[in-house]
Amino acid sequence: MNESQANRRQFLKESITTAAGLVALPTLPDVAIGAPAIISSQVLGSDGKPAAVRIRFSVIGMNHGHIYGQVGAVTRGGGELVSFYAKEPELAAEFAKRFPQAKQAKSESEILDDKSIQLVLSSAIANERAPLGVRVMKSGKDFMSDKPGITTLEQLAEVRKVQKETKRIYSIMYSERLENKATVKAGELVKAGAIGNVIQTVGLGPHRIGLTSRPAWFFEKKQFGGIICDIASHQFDQFLFFTGSNQADIVASQVGNLHYPQYPNFEDFGDVMLRGNGGMGYIRVDWFTPDGLKSWGDGRLTILGTEGFIEIRKNIDPGGREGGNHLFITDKKETRYIDCSKENLPYGEQLVNDVLNRTETAMSQEHCFLATELAIKAQKQAQTIHLKK
């Protein structure tokens, strides 16, 4: 195995310990340390009961470990993983260890030509996901991508065109909302009017870089899309969801490579200010999580309402409570803490329902596209930061 292959394998192992991976696979402690784990044929659904198989799905491209969280979500919702394909033999071998029940396809076309497959999942290299999604939709299948699901406005225009023509689902798994239990709970509270009308979200998405485990494409902006397009797509999704905005403008955005000159096409910091027709938002993302933190990142979301506010600590409560999924709510009466670790995660089941019923219960198609459109536009118009230090 050469150095590049070793880095890819290590990257997949470490990325499985992100919020999406750990939440989606709660019964697999070995996954957290990157050890091979076999997925049981009996998988629990979003309600904690065994999920009955309702659709057949496949995976094409697994360059990021988020694919394991994606598979976990759909499986919980009633999907059966039947086949997979990856161009990279070492990635396919690792995936086969996790899912020995799935057939390894000889080519992408073998999956696309299989009429029994209803949904295709992918965490391919970021700038390859949209073209793949177009091919998937043209083959008559629905598609679920890791974020960023689209990296340029040109890709977005083509995806929108083909989605409209084919009427297939193009879903992007914004896992910091869809697969984070505290954020799901916050959605229920906001919908119930617990903090009045939402007027602003502040989303922070710090990450640990893990230089030695990252594959080469991770440092190439053309391939990963830029830090705002990539990481901040989560925060744009949450902004739209919690403020109820269906239109928004980028007020200001900036990006920089402040600490890694050896990777000239990389970005390690980005932030955005935006204004929608339902509220305002601020976003900050970075690759500066220190090794001393017991998590890959202290992801936070603050939701400001007219009658109170909610703060979510997604992955860790530094110096406080153990684990993740922490929610704090302050209203006119008191401040309360809610442990969300036992909340259900409905996205996988909702997506499977949408595949079967041709509905939009997991996420509207326009919301999915608007979140990524805003991320791309903020990335495209961002000013470059140059610090004199």
From TrEMBL:
Example of a GO MF term: oxidoreductase activity
Keywords of this entry: Oxidoreductase
Ranges for domain Gfo/Idh/MocA-like oxidoreductase N-terminal: 55-172
Domain GFO/IDH/MocA-like oxidoreductase: 185-311
Database matches in PROSITE patterns: TAT
UniProt-listed Pfam families: GFO_IDH_MocA (PF01408), GFO_IDH_MocA_C3 (PF22725)
UniProt superkingdom: Bacteria
InterPro entries, A to Z: Gfo/Idh/MocA-like_OxRdtase_N, Gfo/Idh/MocA_oxidrdct_glycsds, GFO_IDH_MocA-like_dom, NAD(P)-bd_dom_sf, TAT_signal
The protein, known as: Gfo/Idh/MocA family oxidoreductase
Organism: Spirosoma validum
